[in-house]
Write a structure and sequence with these properties.
single chain, alpha+beta, four-stranded antiparallel sheet, 12 helices, 23% strand
Amino acid sequence: MKKCFISVVISTLLFSGLFASTWAINGSCLPSNDEKFAEYSNQFLYYFNEIRSWHPNILPEASVATENLHTYLTTLKNPNYDTQLLQLLTMRCLYNVDKVSANQITDFVNKLNAEFPDRAEHHWIYANFWTTTTHSSDAIDEYNKYLELTDGLVNTEFLQNYAYANMLAGKKLTAIHAIKAAANFGGYNLEDDPLYKNLNENIISYEPGTNLPKEKLWKMTYANEEGKYFFDSTLIGISMKVNGTWNINFSGLENNSPATVLIHPDAFKYKNNDISLSLLLIAYPQTITPANWMENTLSKFKIIKKETKSIKDNDFTVYTYEDLDKYNDFRKGSRGYIYSATILPTENSGTRCEHIIDLSKIRNKDDAQKMQYYQMAETYSRIPEPINIMILVDSCNAISNETQQWINDFMNNAIFE
């Protein structure tokens, strides 16, 4: 795995404890009375900031100090958990000078997983390793394992690391929530935190009634699954999992009109015929929602059933409609569904509509030994008002079972918050 010195195009992000990983280790459990250990560990800590992240000019003395401690730790018999955490930390640093491979680090973590399945701290160190090597997906996975094992009981330093990793992964709303929590737990002034300042500058609040073109409202992110993508908007709190072969048209929030997405998925086969369905999503912020808009819409359809469905903590009213005079050929008449809901904002609305951008998959590998720059994209915060949602699925009786399965899968993979 090639090294990459990360430089995000923002002002310098230097704050105490960033990727220090030493916070994960309980120093009182280390063999401090061992003179050799004390000598090597002091040397390592002296050079730690020099070698904890890769850069082109790591001092040779830092490499020697780290290797001395690592070698000594490997000679200890029956080392306890925290001593092995320190060994993992030295391995993470030695990776930066090509003395240890990523596979060796992973093997050592797997050993800790087997020996200490209920301990969380090595996941924190391992997450920091993946973050500094631009593998955002792996990093967030490890941070989440730490959170699961600690039941969310974390300290300020973890939250700072977690916030920075999420920022690099493109999840700025998640990052700013984490850094706010870090400041709250740590008792320091949030406005003095450089990470918070940079995040705040790149998170935009929408002014109700202003025009927002579709390119700014929606974005598409690879879903880390062959042919699948996330199509989402943090501003209106919607995320949909889509197939790359689907035909998708969409609009922004302009001229007091709603945001819309029109999806034509792959056609279904019915008796050697291709039959397509369509899905139209309409999202109205509360302040521009026309009076009686749902009633006016429903009046255009022959409703045969009304029910309530709870989907991912949201209650949708679902209407089934049928018209045998429409599509009255081999399609056996029209049949479709209308989903409606009002989604109320919460403090965390929009965060689940952020998806990981893995820099390791987009960086220029031919220039891996050079500093590489990534522009931090702007993110819109969720509108602080209810969003009225309507989803209209237009299909026919000939593929009613297939349509029902398709819309169930679509809704279960979607997020509305």
